[in-house]
Amino acid sequence: MSERSERTNPPEGDWLGTPYLRFERHGPLARCTVDRPDARNAMTPSMYFGVRYASNHVDADPELAGLLITGTGDVFIPGGDMGGASPDDWGLPRVLGMDITPFDAMRQSVKPVVCAVNGICQGGGLMIAMLSDMAVASERATFRAPELFRGIADTHYGHILARQVGPARARDLLFTGRTIDASEAVQWGLVARVVPHDELLDAATEVLIACCRTAPGARSDIKRELDAYYGLYDRIGMKASIFGDEAAEGWKAFKERRPPSWIHPDLRPEGRI
Predict the structure, then answer these.
(1) In the predicted model, what is the mean pLDDT of residues 100-108?
(2) Smaller CB count within 10 Å for the chain: N or C?
(3) SS3 of the chain
(4) The domain that contains 215 carries what CATH number?
(5) Using one digit for the tens of pLDDT, what is the confidence trace for 218-263?
């Protein structure tokens, strides 16, 4: 399948602004599917904004009760496209900024948002899963936070992850960049449930239905408490890091499939990390 770029206009109605996101209505439930298999579901700025728009779109539509987010193949969401490609560009900044990501929308959504994590979940994908109202993972799913290998001081990750799983486990994930499986992820509290892969969509849909049956006003009060628990992060510091020298070297090393130059020569692995 080749990269699809037949439409490059902003979101409107059920169109999410990119051919790599599909918005479907299943009765009162909406489903947003990340579908960019040629790039392993790597997220462009338009894709990140499209997920944000999907949450806001469901909130504003009286015919919809909740949103399910999932991916295709063996990938949920692996984070931003490190290659810098934006074949679906319609005017958003080519350099990803936090103002177009869906993270705040997840925290503030009026209607329930549930993630069905079907496979690889890392970077921005892990953040989306953590900040959704519930995340249900396939037994095949894997989880990773590789930002420090890219030279990015992702203060949002450092802040949210520590509150999600505790400081010790946050350090483990952020400082080693290791991959954990679905069983460990549910033990740590990264996701709420793990189910057999073939049952994922049905199980996540049942969770979404259950969430949609709760009283909306009371649910919003609880979400406010959870949002306060997560609190604020150092957005200024993160923005400075994204445009800094280490992030530039991290991006270049990724593109050139080599380890970054900041690694001691005796400790450099083969290829990219």
Answers:
(1) 94
(2) N
(3) CCCCCCCCCCCECCECCCCCEEEEEECCEEEEEECCHHHCCCECHHHHHHHHHHHHHHHHCCCCCEEEEEEECCEEECCECCCCCCCCCCCCCCCCCHHHCCHHHHHHCCCCEEEEECCEEECHHHHHHHHCCEEEEECCCEEECCHHHHCCCCHHHHHHHHHHHCHHHHHHHHHHCCCEEHHHHHHHCCCCEEECHHHHHHHHHHHHHHHHCCCHHHHHHHHHHHHHHHCCCCHHHHHHHHCCHHHHHHHHHHHCCCCCCCCCHHHCCCCCC
(4) 3.90.226.10
(5) 999 999 999 999 999 998 999 899 889 999 999 999 999 999 999 9
DSSP bridge pairs for 43: 80
d(CA 106, CA 132): 5
- b vs e for 150-166, b when ≥16 Cβ sit within 10 Å of the residue's Cβ? bbbbbbbbbbbbebbbe
In a domain, 257, yes or no: no
Share above pLDDT 90 across residues of the chain, in percent, rounded to a whole number: 88
Is residue 196 situated within a structural domain?
yes
Residue 230 included in any domain: yes
- Is the pTM higher than 0.70? yes
Whether 48 and 103 have beta carbons less than 8 Å apart is answered as no
- Structural domains of the chain, count: 1
Q: How far is CA 18 from CA 11, 36, 49, 115, 250, in A?
A: 8, 10, 9, 20, 27
CA distance 167 to 147: 17
At 194-204, the pLDDT tens digits run: 999 999 999 99
Q: Domain range holding 225?
A: 21-242
pLDDT at 1: 39
